[in-house]
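forwarding from the other thread:

> can someone predict this with magnesium ion?

sure thing
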Amino acid sequence: MPYETELRTALLALQRASLLTRRVALTTLSSVTKSDRSPVTVGDFGAQALVISALRHAFPDDAIVAEEDAAALRDNEALRGKVWDYVQGAGLSDEGAESSIGGPLKSERDMLDAIDGGASEGFASAGSQGRRVWALDPIDGTKGFLRGGQYAIALALLVDAKPVLGVLACPNLPQDASAPIPTEHAHEKGEGEGYGVLVSAVAGQGTTVRVLGSGGVAEGKPTKMREVGEAQIGSAVFCESVESGHSSHDHHALITQKLGVTSSPVRMDSQAKYASLAMGLADVYLRLPVSASYQEKIWDHAAGEIVVKEAGGMVGDVQGRPLDWAQGRTLKENKGVVVAGKGVWDMVISAVKDVLAA
Ligand SMILES: Nc1ncnc2c1ncn2[C@@H]1O[C@H](COP(=O)(O)O)[C@@H](OP(=O)(O)O)[C@H]1O
Ligand SMILES: [Mg+2]
Ligand SMILES: [Mg+2]
Ligand SMILES: [Mg+2]
């Protein structure tokens, strides 16, 4: 099967990183503020180190675009030591699996170098055909993570500026699709209580859900989006960010009102929204720009896009245009993101256009 080694590596790398983030989530969380005023935690740094070291071990020639860098850790010994403790403590319980992704990191220095290994500019400059770039968000939904809500570790492989493989580790999504989705204080439920999924997709191979474990890769089950037609739009489940600073709740309300949607939107942090659509827990995801200047980041959407598309859904911007992955670290040619099933895509896009034009 194409991308078999890449998929296995990505699944194990995210599973190992989630051991770290789950452990961090049980502590009293604090964050450091970045230059764009957004938060970052020891969980973000530690997860980035673990995933990048696994990718470098398996695919030393691939480029990596990742959200974080190690500057704050190089300047702060206490913070660096804390991240290093967590990184050393995160190992898969299956020895063969752990060694297949390179085994434990050897030193603090290796950890910092791994974190700084995600500085690629992606597809910004015209490159050779078949160029491979991984896009990593070590914790997507850091604000959700800090609230004990939904978060995801998101990893995608892009080839020729198209996502061809994506994995979302969602430690706080229920394994039983009929269980309620916790939107805060999820970590109080603890591990081993039916929470944690790995949702993955490879181009042409469909989308698969697995239990997020602590050893080797668990058995996967295929998953599809729910099929909703225009006649059922009123009862469709819409979801959006918890943060009104990331997506306009007001525009969302006008759009659902226009479409006659009866229930209020499910608010959830992170790419757990894409995972929820792929798992048939929700039907439409709207991310409506709050500022004209913000550029969506590729690591916030690449894994989500392929996971939803392979589950039968559509992903585009607020004009309904495909996302353009050839622009570097951001999606600067697109504004906002809309995700929906094929049966309601045209209808949703036209409602979005009408509301944003008004
Ligand atoms: N003004 C803005 N508009 C849209 N997205 C934004 C934003 N400011 C930050 N973000 C992004 O929103 C992501 C979280 O999305 P959501 O609201 O769906 O949980 C953040 O990812 P991180 O948490 O990885 O930094 C961040 O990259
Ligand atoms: Mg961030
Ligand atoms: Mg993110
Ligand atoms: Mg992040």
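The mean pLDDT is 95. thats all i got for now
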